[in-house]
Amino acid sequence: MNEFMQAAIDEAKKGLEEGGVPIGSVIVYEDKILGGGHNKRVQQGSVVLHGEMDAFENAGRQPAAVYKKCTLYTTLSPCPMCTGAILLYGIPKVVIGENKTFLGSEALLKENGVEVIVLDNKECEDLMNTFIKNKPEIWNEDIGE
């Protein structure tokens, strides 16, 4: 498995261990992780700290030229909010662990020229299926239902 997707999975597991939603993400620049994060909505009572948003936060302020050379790895298909951040900062490539448990705004990413790769990773899917089964109310809140 790609080391960067593994890092995103490790972030997702960290979130689960903390009692949160198991979604992780890393932003990679020149083969190094610029920032990683996981969903912290439950842990921090946040309305916006999805895995991708936490990775952006942890990457810190970067020039547009840096973001335009990054790849974002995420364990789950990005929601509209996270897709907006990806587009805003000009991330050209997104690698997604799985999109069966939740199909985010991949079409919008593609329409805006972002290369989208879906790995259909079983570990990512299993993490989400187990969480959704065990904590449907938190999952529904996380996706705005």
Write the layout of secondary structure elements.
Layout: H1 3-17, E1 24-29, E2 32-38, H2 41-44, H3 51-59, H4 64-67, E3 70-76, H5 80-88, E4 93-98, H6 106-111, E5 115-118, H7 122-134, H8 136-142
Parallel strand pairs: 3-4, 4-5
Antiparallel strand pairs: 1-2, 1-3
Task: Tell me what you see in this structure.
The protein has a five-stranded mixed β-sheet with strand order 2-1-3-4-5. It is globular and about 40 Å long. By secondary structure, the chain is of the alpha/beta class. The chain has eight helices and five strands. It has helices at residues 3-17, 41-44, 51-59, 64-67, 80-88, 106-111, 122-134, 136-142; strands at 24-29, 32-38, 70-76, 93-98, 115-118.
Give a nutshell description of this structure.
With 145 residues, this protein is an alpha/beta fold.
Alpha-carbon Rg, integer: 14 Å
Q: What class would the helix/strand composition place it in? A: alpha/beta
Oligomer: single chain
If strands are numbered along the chain, what order do they take across the biggest sheet?
2-1-3-4-5
Biggest sheet, in brief? 5 strands, mixed
Ends distance:
33 Å
Mean pLDDT: 95
How many distinct helices? 8
Q: Please give the number of β-strands.
A: 5
Large-scale geometry? globular
- Beta content: 15-25%
User: What string, H for helix and E for strand, traces the elements in order?
Assistant: HEEHHHEHEHEHH
Low-confidence stretches: none
* Helix residue percentage: 40-55%
